[in-house]
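Homework help board

Subject: predicted structure for assignment chain

Our instructor gave us this sequence and asked us to write out the predicted structure in token form, then describe one feature. I got the tokens but I'm not sure how to describe them. Can anyone check?
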Amino acid sequence: MVHFLHVKRRALFAAVACLGFAAAAPFSALAQTNFPTKTIRLIVPFPAGGPTDIFARQYAIGLSRVLNQSVIVDNKAGASGAIGSLEVKRSQPDGHTLLFGTASNLALYNLMALKPQYDYLKDFTTVAVVGGSAVVIMSNKESPQTLKALIDQAKANPTKFRYGSPGQGTYLHLSMERFLLESGAKIEHIPYKGSGQAKPALLGGQTETMVDALGSALPLHQGGQAKILAIAANKRSSLAPDVPTVNEALGIKGFEAVLWNGIAAPAGTPKAVIDILAAATAKVLKDPGLVEQLKQLAMEPTDSTPESATEYIKEEMMRWKPVIEKTGLRIE
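My token output:
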């Protein structure tokens, strides 16, 4: 397991105990809580085709099967995930409208927004942290083909390169800025509305590099259209064994970043409904078929409870706050 899945010992014991109970209790209480009673709307606050959207669609299929109810994915992109998040915040707190988000809108938004329109910990109830994919740095075929060459050239000519990201203030943007801060290089940031828009810009030469999640970047790398220069993990991925870690490529030790995903409901959603959703989610993530599909997408599912997931998000806020302060990144 990569480090983002680790929880504190007490939280882990609590998670295991709760999951054991949740496997049976919430489903036996389905009739009592009368949930779900209609189609569940899973809002993804990023465009279709990106890593979050890919994961969300696989999850929606599994959730629909477990709950025996239709689950539709609705992409509401914009403002680094804030538009979709706000729609969920304002929805009826009955569990039929859920947010499938990332660290960007679940943990970083309140730390980076100059005028935040929501407070995640107050306005939402966490269902689960469901896993994620390691962050990678990728270049097009006309740009430097090693991370060291890219950084050396960027240091020699600070205005030469541009990198694309899924948006201003996203986890991927912050991860790249943290990398540039630690490497001492300067590369201009060009924000897009999701990885799905950043990739054509990379291939078309509007940017020379981009930051993405491994699962999203892998097809371009495997197809020879672009090259992943490094992965922000403590070891190489079995799906891309030719890609070095940031430490191997540049000697920056301990540089790890995982674009994790989480599911949330509006604040005020009944606990019984949250428990049913959490138990259903745990069941979905244990499905061998889904696990294999996610593995091929370089995404790693994990177990959590609403309580342990909320604690993890709080820890992520604390972990990234000093990085945000050092980089000075803010969302208008």
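Reply (TA_rk): Your tokens look well-formed. For the description, you could write something like this. The chain has two domains: 3-133+259-327, 134-250. That's the kind of observation they're looking for.
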